[in-house]
Design brief:
Chain lengths: 425, 163
């Protein structure tokens, strides 16, 4: 085992007798190598440590898979407890619905005016989800729901990354992900995508071939809900998150498998450098957490506010109503959801979390709610992801969108078919 | 001489700590199975003394129960020749899984008790309300948590070996 440490090279140079200051003979160079080696390398038998054995156990499938299940359990449990029970339900709902919304409704002039509709929303609303104004729902969604969800997601993600568990998860997932044309490191964009699809699309560069990047980008846009979406889902339909996630995981596997068969190209093997387990350094964790959360907020908050503004303008102009009437046959007959879901689907292009918040105010059956939330997730990527995908290549973007429309149509129909067979649709 | 004794102890198939780990593994395994059975509706929910298994949520009781089963199996698998590095690692891994479940249970309770009730106009829970929320009953993982701390002994002996 070699152990590196700082060494004073001038000592080694001085040890080479008679060596020219500028030109060294071959012997002198080797003597210098020996001198440096004596100072820096320790020979002996490497002793296996407890950390090494634990590291091995977490990559062997028999022991590693239960550990991966436990890690994901802890991840999700901390996420829901902190973002859901503590911050959003515990404080933010109370503040926004009990103080902020009534105050805005009382101070903003003329509830019948267009500006009231744009900024405060529905004057009869009791909650910020129902109001749908820029300064009511917009602020509530971005600060009250999305911020805590994204914060705790990135904290957990950074801890997994900096402790050395993430590369082990990559090794463990390698054989599974190869079945859909990817390799173990695809777990990085997948987990990042659960926070935000924007850095996740950038992280697809970790994959070697064009085929792998295309498959990953398409699957990210289709089946990976972002942290903001998850936060909203937990808030408005906590009992249905499991079913929605199941639909998405099944879709991810099926369409990943199909894309792997259909798209030409290679799926090369990779060598993963697995570092030893170590305690994360709190300064690095804090810095990563700060950068990621701030980066997300800079992108998310303007899009949420702007998204509400655009959707409200489209409502005022009668565009949403027109589209709802036009697309009614597809939505009602093929997907089995009410035509009112057209509005949230348009909002979904701007922000998907916003769209789910909007869906929660439409009266629907359980099946319709699950189907429409799945549709919002697999429908067009949000505009921020769209821009980043465009940066990765316009041809890939167009191909991904074409795949996306086909998948939405087919998968939406399949879910409706299953709903009919089960007697719930 | 001392080194030989220590090696002999390492290679003994059954030791006192091994028996302790095996019992702990059995109890953990049993709790995991009961978690899943209660969730599956075999019984509506169990509350015995300071132990409670609500079984009302797939994520906590089915998924969490599966992790408890794995934790119990890891401990059982590592209970013979427990002082050897490989076997100790299995036991420690089992202990870590129980700590994860217990830790998340305690964290969930903490997060739910800091804010006041929905109906209350106050934002924060009262101190007495906060403390009362930590009173029994507890989940199986939380009850097992203090008993799994014995596993720290295994970490200590191997840490000493490493240094």
């Amino acid at each position: 085992m070699a152990k590196g440490r700082h060494v004073n090279l001038s000592g080694a140079v001085m040890a080479v007798e008679g060596a020219d200051a500028m030109v060294f003979s071959s012997d002198a160079r080797w003597e210098m190598v020996d001198a440096i080696t004596r100072e820096t390398v320790t020979y002996g038998t490497y002793k296996y440590t407890l950390g090494d054995v634990l590291g091995d156990l977490t990559v062997k499938p028999l022991t590693g898979i239960p550990v991966a299940f436990a890690a994901l359990y802890a991840f999700w449990s901390v996420f829901t407890s902190f973002a859901g029970a503590l911050v959003t339900d515990g404080f933010m709902v109370k503040f926004f619905d009990g103080f902020w919304l009534p105050w805005m409704q009382s101070v903003w002039p003329d509830p019948a005016s267009w500006h009231y509709f744009l900024f405060v929303g529905n004057p009869a609303a009791d909650t910020c989800f129902e109001a749908f104004g820029m300064l009511t729902s917009g602020l509530f969604v971005s600060i009250g729901v999305v911020l805590p969800a994204v914060f705790v997601f990135y904290l957990m993600m950074t801890l997994l990354e900096d402790s050395g568990y993430l590369p082990r998860l990559a090794v463990l997932m390698d054989s599974v992900l190869h079945r859909i044309g990817l390799h173990g490191y695809a777990i990085v964009p997948i987990i990042l995508g659960l926070g935000c699809n924007v850095p996740a699309v950038t992280a697809t560069r970790i994959l070697e071939t064009k085929k792998q990047r295309f498959i990953m980008m398409t699957l990210l846009a289709l089946f990976i809900p972002c942290g903001a979406q998850l936060g909203i889902m937990m808030s408005v339909l906590p009992d249905l998150v499991g079913i929605v996630m199941l639909c998405l995981i099944v879709g991810f596997c099926i369409f990943g498998f199909i894309l792997n068969k259909v798209i030409p190209g290679e799926n090369p093997e990779i060598l993963v450098d697995v570092p030893p387990y170590h305690w994360p350094v709190k300064e690095y964790v804090a810095k990563k957490l700060w950068n990621r959360t701030m980066g997300f907020l800079k992108e998310a908050v303007p899009f949420v506010l702007f998204g509400i503004l655009v959707v409200n303008l489209l409502y005022l102009g009668g565009v949403i109503q027109g589209l709802a009437n036009l697309l009614e046959p597809v939505f009602v007959t093929w997907f089995g959801v009410p035509k009112e879901t057209v509005g949230p689907l348009i909002a979904a292009f701007l922000r998907k979390d916003l769209a789910i918040a909007q869906l929660s105010t439409i009266p629907m059956t359980t099946y319709q709610m699950v189907a429409s939330v799945v549709l919002v997730t697999i429908y067009f990527p949000c505009v921020a992801t769209f821009v980043v995908m465009l940066r990765e290549g316009w041809k890939e973007l167009i191909a991904a969108i074409a795949v996306l429309f086909v998948v939405v149509f087919i998968y939406g129909g399949i879910i409706h078919g299953i709903g009919i067979l089960l007697g719930v649709a | 001489m001392e080194h030989n004794e220590s090696k002999e102890y390492d290679e003994q198939k059954i030791t006192l700590i091994g028996i302790y780990v095996a019992l702990l593994g059995l109890v953990t395994l049993a709790f995991g199975i009961v978690d899943i059975l209660v969730w599956a509706g075999v019984r509506p929910g169990i509350e015995v003394g300071i132990l409670a298994i609500a079984g009302d949520d797939f994520f906590r009781w089915a998924w969490g129960g599966f992790i408890m089963i794995c934790a119990g199996l890891f401990m059982l698998a590592g209970s013979t020749r427990v002082a050897t590095l490989q076997q100790s690692a299995k036991v420690i891994l089992g202990g870590v899984l129980v700590w994860l479940i217990a830790g998340t249970d305690i964290f969930a309770r903490l997060c739910a008790t800091i804010p006041a009730d929905e109906a209350s106009p106050a934002f924060f829970n009262s101190f007495s309300g906060f403390i009362a929320a930590f009173a029994p009953p507890y989940t199986p993982a939380v009850l097992l948590f203090p008993f799994t701390l014995g596993i720290l002994y295994l970490i200590r002996i191997h840490d000493t070996d490493d240094s």
